[in-house]
Specification:
6 copies of one chain form a homohexamer. Chain A is 23% helix and 33% strand. The first copy, chain A, is an alpha+beta fold.
């Protein structure tokens, strides 16, 4: 199995609902350093998993929809906690949709799965992996 | 599949038995930077894999039983080599026990597996992953 | 010259005033991974720059005053841009005050300077260094 | 499942064929920081996955065959793009061959799989994993 | 003293002249992860050392003149060893020229010094710092 | 001013004297990831600060005198606390002596200063810098 990972980041504000979150119930923020990993069993005719330039661009566009925003004001997240693990799923799902739409190139349709890791600090991170 | 990882560290002394270990047969030591990863298929009602505060506390307690000690003097390790991979299993098993006892919260009982990585230097690390 | 550095982090929301900040004028957030460095020409009688436990505690307390907050609501920052470099100065100044008050121990009064670095992402960080 | 990883690096020149590679079609170069991971279900009689010294030596030898070279001049890669993912497979396959030849020791024959990750920068890396 | 650092990278081929370089006399390559640090005694009216967006853009442009190239073919380096430390000076000098030309903004003229670090691997890096 | 840094590591056991050290008064251990930085105002005739191979070898030899040992048994440290900052000075002084003896090459006599940083974990490190 082959994999390629590209890294970018986003900086957002948000707050959490639920006593378990303690002081994180207050409006605060996070830098998420985001790793997007694409896996497939065999390389394409260019000998790559995915065009790394297109993968990087796709990740930048997906993060751009969230970057420099207060997620509490985003209708897509109304009534849900935008936890690190949940945001990892949002990014993975949006990347998967772009792949299926052909935005990462025709050969990228051979990608088997996408995994996204959001690093919220030097001591905590969360991931979500899904099939395509 | 979702995952959350928290990081902490411990500083221990130990020695190894067996010619294969060369100079590491002498009493020496290591800082282990420890990553504990918790995985589950679906998030709980708070939209998280596990309460990250409780996960961090549990890891600190487990590492506290080993930290600032000479492992050669720990009865739990009599007659065994406390290799990095073996210590990864010790930490994972002790975290698993705490999860099963409910110490990470009721919803943490939904965690499917625990993986622990011990980084012994910038050029070597070892892991152990187990189901719950 | 000797130096000791300890690392911690904080997660805040804020916004910036000024066209130069572009989309960062919107309410957003950041994780700051914070390194506090203490320097002195000679070690104290325990052979250290500062008790690393006390230094870690002092940094945690100083960051705790800012952590999990919207800095736009903090009266201390009314009318000023809480840029990464400005926040580095805030943390350094507050650590310096604690040193001068003896909170890091009597021998810590021998510390010559404090430098604070705030990492806002994997590709950008800012620092401030001052004498005591 | 247990795993041990060792890290080393190599510095090579190469060029790519195909419009998708854009400016990387020109002769350029890369430092690959290489992580080799060995996995097995149970530890050997010394309580390790593999003798870490021998694993480190094997990785150094395999990388030494590529290091400080222009891969465009290596007959082994005639007519193929030496992409990061393809080079990860080359390193993994060569390590696998050394394991099967007993060069990592008799007990290393119990290793179940090898995974190799090549980091080409702070924002991109690729991996290949195979069974033995 | 304040400082701001931004990070980018470049991937080049080159060779060295001189027996001291051993196998690095052959044509090979490197990824340089490049940190550019800007220092000044006081912040500007926006409370920053430099507009981080403009600093990032300037670094990208400077690295773009070298990226994906064989430095042995660059007339600017005829007859000189493009060592990591020498390339750090090239990047710093070119950034300094852009600052003096006002490309990082008027207030950037208050920058006192530029330091550039090139990381050639996880175990070696080189720097050059100069006044403006 | 130019600088070159090389990285290696050592794994030692030791204990501390003094109540301030708390549980670290017990015999424990540490991995020190060690960065040795060499600075000079002008490059030598090969366009380098120091032959990076020789610098790496010198660091390995100096760390080899301490590696895989219990520092409490080393006569050189009788009656002193082998704190991270004190060990940074030991490594820097021993490197300085090797430079003055010509072991890093004739041109290395032009090195102006040596700085050594010992990383004891992901959240703490100490340095010592001295002139030659």
């Amino acid at each position: 199995m082959f994999a390629v990972t590209v890294r970018d980041h986003m900086m957002v504000a948000h707050s959490f609902q639920g006593e378990v979150f303690g002081p994180a119930q207050r409006l605060h923020g996070a830098t998420y350093v985001v790793d997007a990993t694409f896996r497939r069993a065999a390389l394409d005719s260019d000998n790559v998993v995915v065009d790394i330039g297109r993968a990087t661009d796709a990740l930048r566009v997906v993060l751009g929809e969230l970057n420099y925003r207060n997620l509490d004001d985003d209708a897509a997240f109304a009534g849900v906690n935008t936890s690190t693990e949940m945001l990892a799923k949002v990014v993975a799902d949006r990347l998967a949709e772009r792949i299926s739409q052909g935005e990462l190139g025709e050969s990228a349709r051979g990608i088997a799965s996408v995994a996204v890791t959001l690093h919220e600090s030097h001591v905590a991170w969360a991931s979500y992996e899904r099939l395509l």
